[in-house]
Amino acid sequence: NAGVTQTPKFRVLKTGQSMTLLCAQDMNHEYMYWYRQDPGMGLRLIHYSVGEGTTAKGEVPDGYNVSRLKKQNFLLGLESAAPSQTSVYFCASNNRRTLHNSPLHFGNGTRLTVT
Amino acid sequence: GENVEQHPSTLSVQEGDSAVIKCTYSDSASNYFPWYKQELGKRPQLIIDIRSNVGEKKDQRIAVTLNKTAKHFSLHITETQPEDSAVYFCAASNAGGTSYGKLTFGQGTILTVHP
């Protein structure tokens, strides 16, 4: 049981390049989330999904797209990376049935630098 | 939407002293308040949480208090140890309805415990 796995761990992009961050969970969780973490700003929600085939915008969705084609995977895409997207990205998941009693399960994060 | 303010941004204490971190929230519908600890380069880890039907919760050296009327909650760490040094985040959510477990985080507090 690996929990929440994020790939890659590190990435450096040039402005304008695209990439996809992959989040995979093996806990059969319905809910999945993408957060970004910046110094002094805590974690901010980018997009989230409440089930396979569904996605919704969070607090800071601009410049990102997401897809949840399979229940266990939640992909975060950057179509044209900008320096403002330099950040640490965390994926998290939760179980709809035990939402009131279980914490978010976080992945280990992806450190992205856009030059 | 929900807004969570966290203070102080940095906190320095001597080993054995107590540390207190305070958060305020804006949405009166929020009913779940977790605290996360994040060590350098690691994922956030839940250390304690409280629900709105409880005023205080303790777990060994850690306690959380909640004042629903004033919309603020606090983390108390007693007998601090160097291994308590980390970044601490408060968060709030409405654990029900259409919130889907989304957490709104505070900005974080860097706690340093000096031996």
Structure description:
The complex is a heterodimer of chains A (115) and B (115). By secondary structure, chain A is mostly beta strands. In chain A, 0% of the residues lie in helices and 48% in strands. Chain A contains no helices and 11 strands. Chain A has strands spanning 4-7, 10-13, 19-25, 31-37, 43-49, 56-57, 65-67, 73-78, 87-94, 105-106, 110-114. Chain A is globular, with a radius of gyration of 13 Å. With 115 residues, chain B is mainly beta. Helix content of chain B is 0%, strand content 53%. Chain B has no helices and 11 strands. In chain B, strands 2, 4, 5, 9, 10 and 11 form a 6-stranded mixed β-sheet that branches. A 5-stranded antiparallel β-sheet of chain B has the order 1-3-8-7-6, with no helix packed on it. Chain B starts with a strand and ends with a strand. At the A-B interface, strand 4 and strand 5 of A face strand 5 and strand 10 of B.
Terminal Cα separation of chain A, in Å? 36 Å
Counting DSSP H or I runs of 4 or more residues, the number of helices of chain B is: 0
Q: Please report the total strand number of chain A as a whole number.
A: 11
The unreliable regions of chain A are none
CA-based shape of chain B: globular
Task: Tell me briefly what this model is.
The complex is a heterodimer of chains A (about 120) and B (about 120). By secondary structure, chain A is mainly β. Chain A has no helices and 11 strands.
What are the key terms here?
heterodimer, A: 115 residues, mainly beta, four-stranded antiparallel sheet, globular, B: five-stranded antiparallel sheet, 0% helix
Write the layout of secondary structure elements.
The complex is a heterodimer of chains A (115) and B (115).
Chain A: E1 4-7, E2 10-13, E3 19-25, E4 31-37, E5 43-49, E6 56-57, E7 65-67, E8 73-78, E9 87-94, E10 105-106, E11 110-114
Parallel strand pairs in A: 2-11
Antiparallel strand pairs in A: 1-3, 3-8, 4-5, 4-9, 5-6, 7-8, 9-10, 9-11
Chain B: E1 4-7, E2 10-14, E3 19-25, E4 32-38, E5 45-51, E6 56-59, E7 62-67, E8 72-77, E9 86-92, E10 104-105, E11 109-114
Parallel strand pairs in B: 2-11
Antiparallel strand pairs in B: 1-3, 3-8, 4-5, 4-9, 6-7, 7-8, 9-10, 9-11
